[in-house]
Design goal:
By secondary structure, the protein is α+β, with helices and mostly antiparallel strands. Helices cover 31% and strands 14% of the residues.
């Protein structure tokens, strides 16, 4: 069955298998037929944040979400943030603060941070920590990540992720 939605501002359609085959998650559709590599598989139980996307502007895990839930909606991924030529303020701030190490969790963190800055362009540290609470990072970069999000807010990143 075809499932159509908007992905990072562009109309897309994927063929979702029928329920007898177990269905397809949004993450599987993004990484498979849609060819994205930003959203990552971590736990498969919506508990680590590696697969975070925006769905109509709200940060949501995609690893267990049936792709059909995206039908007719706007999905945003880290690929919708910026480009190497014109990086998003969050990307600039994360580089300036050296906020990443292994990088596995960062795409989900960036998506959640962009969703936060879209709804609250001037968050305090507590708001940033609350927004990033669902994310697991084993590298110990959490304080640098918090500083990077606060720096991006000062740079004016209210544009958020496309969605």
């Amino acid at each position: 069955m075809p499932v159509a939605f908007t992905l990072n501002g562009a109309a897309v359609e994927v063929e979702a298998p029928d329920d007898s085959s177990g269905g397809m998650t949004l993450l599987q559709a993004l990484r498979g037929p849609l060819g994205l590599s930003g959203p990552r598989f971590g736990c498969g139980q919506e508990a680590c944040g590696s697969c975070m996307v925006t769905l109509d502007g709200e940060a949501r895990p995609s690893c267990a979400m049936p792709v059909e839930m995206a039908a007719g909606r706007a999905v945003g991924t880290v690929e919708g943030l910026g480009t190497p030529e014109a990086p998003h303020p969050l990307q600039t701030a994360f580089l300036a603060e050296q906020a990443g190490q292994c990088g596995w969790c960062l795409s989900g963190i960036l998506v959640s941070a962009a969703a936060l800055l879209r709804r609250n362009p001037d968050p305090d540290e507590a708001a940033v920590r609350a927004a990033l609470e669902p994310h697991l990072c084993r590298c110990g970069a959490q304080n640098r990540i918090i500083r990077a999000v606060l720096r991006a807010a000062r740079l004016g990143s209210g544009a958020g992720v496309a969605a």
